Amino acid sequence: MGLFRTNYDKPGPGVEKDEVPKPGYIRFWQLYFRNFNRLLGMSLIYATVMTVLLCALFYIVTCVINPNITATYFKALEKATEGVVLAEGQTIVYNSWFIFLYSLIFEVPVWISLPLTVICIILYGPLTCGLTYCIRNFAREEHVWFSDFFTRAWRNKKQGLIFGLADQVLVLSICIYLFGGDAIGLPAGVFAYMRIVAIAIFIGYIVMRWYIYPMIVTFDLRIRGLLKNSWMFVLLGLKQNIIVAVVSLIFIAFFIFVPIFYPAMLPTFIALMFMFFWTLMQFLAQFTTYPVLYKYMIGPALADRKKAERAARNEPEPEEND
């Protein structure tokens, strides 16, 4: 039951008994905009945390792992400012995400940026749990208070912190393998092999985390159980995972490259990033993969609970219709 399937028919309030289920892509936008006001507030908070973390990552990649990126970029900027004509085939993006991130990195004082980065590193995982809980309920048409964003983040703070740190470590490691070949000092052949392995692990983990955070806020599982189950869902939900991956890549590419080719659009895309980019990405993943989680975990768990309740009341098992 993926994003583009017509049988995503999880019942919700106000749905007529005999109403024909709408196609998944229609229900996706209906549910998203139905809850847009609350998602907007959550997005502003979550995007602030993510922006701080992106700035820290960008600084580490361009100034620590591979300083040549920064040196080359500012040298080209200087040439462009002085009116020097670049060689054929060379271009300079003078008003893009690079400028936005560099401005935040070098304009904000260290005594502000450093403590803020540490705070965001800690908050990222728990806030992701809180956002996941709210979006999960939106996807299955259940009510959510805005305060649930914070209460669920606090309730799942331990596992959220663990997996939040794991997310950040893996992102940093993949950036090292993508941009820091010279810094590692390994033979080219060995490094190429390790890079392929690192990319495969990273992709697998990204898919796993689409299920890890929903399981954190839904079940009482240990770390080992979360990892084991999420790895199984990489295969069990293969079709849904491919849909989320493809649509997410298209959406991310659109967000990155439009401001590069049309620099005047950068302020608009910065505003859109804070308004809905992160929540829309999360909503896409939860809406599309939740049926898989329901089929293999939530549904059977609910059936076992009802069976136990009937046994406690000494009620007979309902007869199955042929």
SSE order and pairing:
Elements (H helix, E strand, L loop, with lengths): L23 H11 L1 H30 L1 H15 L15 H11 L2 H30 L8 H8 L1 H23 L1 H4 L3 H31 L4 H14 L1 H24 L4 H47 L10
Helix pairs in contact: 2-3, 2-4, 2-5, 2-12, 5-6, 5-7, 5-9, 5-12, 7-9, 9-10, 9-12, 11-12
**What would the average pLDDT be, to the nearest integer?**
83
Which class best fits the helix and strand makeup? mainly alpha
Roughly what percent helix? over 70%
What is the total number of structural domains? 1
Task: Report on the biggest sheet.
Answer: none
Strand content: under 5%
The first-to-last residue Cα distance is 25 Å
Number of discrete helical segments: 12
Rg estimate, integer Å: 23 Å
| Global morphology | globular
Query: What is the subunit arrangement here?
Result: single chain
- How many strand segments? 0
Q: Which stretches of 5+ consecutive residues score pLDDT under 50? A: 1-15
**H/E element order:** HHHHHHHHHHHH
Account of the protein in words:
- The protein has 322 residues and is mainly α.
- The protein contains 12 helices and no strands.
- The chain has helices at 24-34, 36-65, 67-81, 97-107, 110-139, 148-155, 157-179, 181-184, 188-218, 223-236, 238-261, 266-312.
- Helix 11 (238-261) packs antiparallel against helix 12.
